[in-house]
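R.M. (postdoc): so does anyone remember the format we settled on? I'll just put the structure tokens first.
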């Protein structure tokens, strides 16, 4: 189901809670919502659709990847970036890393690890910040 995008900055600043098997419907809604906004968006965190759970959905090279309880375990080569967000007005400056490793659970709660670089790494960092309640 396509969900409305949350723009309430007070809600967006609340750190999210661990995702469980009961939250898989949220993940499905995130995929539907991301597809509906694919022209202007490449990633969503669950709090962006009003759900305070540790779930992100990101478009990596044309494939939507859902990550439950993602944690960035490695980050290299910091740089200055500018990002926009469906939940926030305008473009904002932030620090990102060119290369990261993210560990997460897949939709069957199997542990996974992914090494990302460039724009894909930037997308994941942005969405993981959302889960922590960090606004760019």
């Amino acid at each position: 189901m396509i969900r409305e995008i949350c723009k309430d900055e007070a809600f967006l600043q609340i750190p999210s809670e661990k995702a469980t098997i009961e939250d898989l419907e949220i993940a499905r809604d995130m995929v539907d919502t991301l597809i509906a906004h694919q022209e202007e968006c490449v990633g969503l965190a669950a709090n962006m659709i009003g759900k305070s759970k540790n779930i992100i959905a990101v478009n990596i090279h044309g494939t939507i990847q859902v990550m439950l309880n993602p944690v960035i375990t490695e980050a290299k080569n910091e740089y200055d970036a500018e990002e926009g967000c469906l939940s926030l007005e305008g473009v904002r400056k932030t620090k990102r890393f060119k290369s990261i490793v993210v560990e997460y659970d897949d939709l069957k709660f199997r542990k996974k690890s992914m090494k990302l670089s460039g724009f894909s790494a930037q997308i994941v960092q942005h969405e993981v910040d959302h889960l922590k309640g960090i606004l760019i």
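R.M.: ...and that's the designed sequence above, right after the tokens. Also worth knowing: The chain has a mean pLDDT of 97. The beta strands are 43-45, 55-60, 63-85, 88-105, 111-117.
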